[in-house]
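Hi all, a correction to my earlier message: I attached the wrong file for VPLPA-CTERM sorting domain-containing protein. Here's the right sequence:
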Amino acid sequence: MGAYFKTLSAACGAIAGLAISSASAATVSETFDFTAATGHEVGTSLSFTEGDLGLTVNASFYNTPTGTIGEPLVASSDLYVIRQEHYGIYVSYHGDNDHRIDGYYNEVALFEFTEEVTITNITFGSVAHGSTFDMFVGNDGTLEFAGDYSVAQSVSTTVNAEVFGIGASADNVHCVSYNRHGHCSQLGGSYSAFKITSLTVSYEELAPVPLPAGAVLLLGGLGLLGAARRRKG
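and the right structure:
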């Protein structure tokens, strides 16, 4: 009996090894098209799903980074996120006259995924001439400055992260009108502005692979061995 159990234990170990080796990581690519669905969606956060990947989008004001890579994102009060049919994602607040993610008051859209991903492509619409955007990446709610880019570029990130920030900041904003109290009542000048029409991301997903033929033969052999021992007994 002891020899049989030794054989059974060894076989189970072999099958476990085959099972472990039969699972492999597959690279999955998903595109979130924010222009496709009909109607408008408005909220302090919006949720989307593509395949097995979930995405939550929210937004806030933020401070223009100094340009130092790794500088933390400094965000303030929450803003509304709008998905506009045919036009994509933008950010708004009460009294906002520019219906884009814009640098008039520095707006950033935050994209939080349910898995660590790499953004392989960002597409834009309704772009103000000469616009750039600030990119932030991070995990656990902590985002760091990763650089600024022209919105005319097809941009991909080089790190895996769960959260990304895409912000528009002012280029040359100044006060053009003051109220009777001496406070600025109207800003002028140039600032970046755009809508985000889609994000394409990739991530690693554990994909099951059928057990090799050797595992099936091994299981069959165990069955025959057990049957033989029962007949002998």
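Sorry for the mix-up. The radius of gyration is 27 Å.
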